[in-house]
Amino acid sequence: MAINSAPETSLLSLLYRSYPTAISPDATEPDLLAASPKIFPQSIYSPTEEADIKQWVGTVSGLQAALVKDEKPVISKIISQLNSHLATRTTLLGAKPSVADIAVYALLAPIVEKWTPEERTGEHGFHNIVRHIDLLQNSRLFGLQIPEEEKVVIDVNDVRFVPKPVDPKKEKELKKKEKAAAEAAAAGGDKQTTLVVGQGKPETAGAAHPEGKKKEEKEKKEKQPKAKPAPVPAGPPSPSLIDLRVGHILRAINHPNADSLYVSTIDCGDAPGSDNTSLDEATGKTVRTVCSGLNGLIPLEEMQGRKIVAVCNLKPVTMRGIKSAAMVLAASPRVAEGEDSHGGPVELVNPPAGAEAGQRVYFDGWNDGEPEKVLNPKKKVWETFQPGFTTTNELEVAFEAGAVPAVQGQEGKPALGKLMTQGGLCSVNTLKGATVR
User: Fold this and answer.
1) Do the Cβ atoms of 417 and 365 come closer than 8 Å?
2) What's the maximum distance between 2 C-alpha atoms anywhere in the chain?
3) Ramachandran sector of residue 192 (left: φ over 0; alpha: ψ -120 to 50; beta: rest)
């Protein structure tokens, strides 16, 4: 059963109970804007994030007032906006926790508890709010002290409708088109202007016949020369062909269509406009969307706001409707042939402290070549070198040349090249002699 007292009392009670050292028991109402850095001292908030917290606290207050007055249109609008905002974010700020999330929980938990299954996860349901409520009441990221009997009962397997994943890039383009259409309509004029869905330019009444336009587009496509494939680098085979980089997971969420997958937004240091990247509106960074089969092996909260090592030149693949443009490197115990290789435990590879997103990662002694732009799946470059990826007794990640026949006989190469950046060695937490992939 969710906390069923009035919203203000519920929030105060929740804050006192969960953060007794950050919230004074003598306060009659919480200073929410000053509470976040006290409650989450490990998080550093930028001026933009502080403004966002203030805005969301104001939104929660507005929703609370609308609930008191039973203003259904206002309530519906705010809840819909909140649900849309959370579609591509783990928390209101993206990945960082804040007191605004707790305020949302205190206000909406009693409401979500009363929603029908259709209202929760139906075709027109509020999937993302339900997920957010479930995260807040169970995640160590927030550490809320809520007795089991007071939690909202959420059946994660009872999903009535799976929404189509949100593509941030397409969403941004659609907003631009809608804005252009609105401006054109407001401007008026002699010519009637309409925005054609799926195209970036407006059409004017009396324009060329669609068939003529299609013919022109076809001719343009035919005239465009085909891109030549990049030449395969010469020289002896080396794991340096694999593009390993430091990645910064900005946020990670559960894959909407696959229980075993996470969907992470990762800054890999790509230049703006690079292939298979998009602009992250929350941070302004160029990012990759990455699906990883770590759900159930690594807690979701441990995937938030952390540095990892990413494989950045595998050919992108679509995993249950979401295009994945990299791979997160992780270690797991070696298993005998035929045994479950995904049974865990699993540990992410840690870059050295202070490593920056996009920094190149390489095996010491094997960094004499440049990575290919995209690995050709037919040449099985990854499959050739990955068996040599291992961890040592000192918990360092390394390349064991003896496990890869293709590199045998190369003079001057180390038998064990440790994975490193300019700032130090890459490691795992506890797994010795593990395979890394």
Assistant:
1) yes
2) 79
3) beta
State the amino acid at position 324 in one-letter form. S
Sign for the CA dihedral angle at 32, 37, 40, 43 comes to positive
**Cβ 397 vs Cβ 332: under 8 Å:** no
What's the CA dihedral at 331, 334, 338, 341 to 10 degrees? -20
CA distances from 50 to 64, 105, 346 (A): 21, 19, 35
Specify whether 243 is located in the same domain as 135.
no
Give the span between the Cα atoms of 290 and 294, in whole angstroms.
11
Residue 183 falls within a domain, yes or no? no
Q: Supply 412's token pair.
A: 């001057």
Cis peptide leading into residue 272 (ω within 30°): no
Q: What is the DSSP string of 211-235?
A: HHHHHHHHHHHHHSPPPPPPPPPPS
Sign of the CA dihedral running 360, 366, 367, 369? negative
* Domain closes at, from 150, 185, 202: 150
Which token pair is 325? 């443009």
Q: Give the residue carrying structure tokens 């959420």.
A: 154
pLDDT tens for each residue of 372-427:
999 999 999 999 999 999 999 999 999 999 999 999 888 889 999 999 998 899 99
What angle, rounded to 10 degrees, do the helices at 32-39 and 99-114 form?
A: 100
CB burial of 386-421 (b: ≥16 within 10 Å; e: otherwise) equals bebbbbbeebbbbbbbeebeebeeeeebeebbbbbb
How far is Cα 24 from Cα 3, in angstroms, rounded to an integer?
Answer: 21
Sole residue written with tokens 């060329």: 208
DSSP, collapsed to helix, strand or coil, labels residue 431 as: coil
* pTM beyond 0.70: no
| CATH assignment of the domain containing 14 | 1.20.1050.10
CA dihedral 321, 322, 325, 330 (to 10 degrees): -100
pLDDT above 90 covers what percent of the chain?
48
Do the domain assignments include residue 215? no
Q: Which residues contact 279 (CB under 8 A, 6 or more apart)?
A: 168, 169, 172, 272, 285, 286, 287
**pLDDT tens digits for range 109-150:** 999 999 999 999 888 889 889 999 999 998 888 889 988 888
Contact present, 98 and 45 (Cβ < 8 Å): yes
Domain that holds residue 52: 7-150
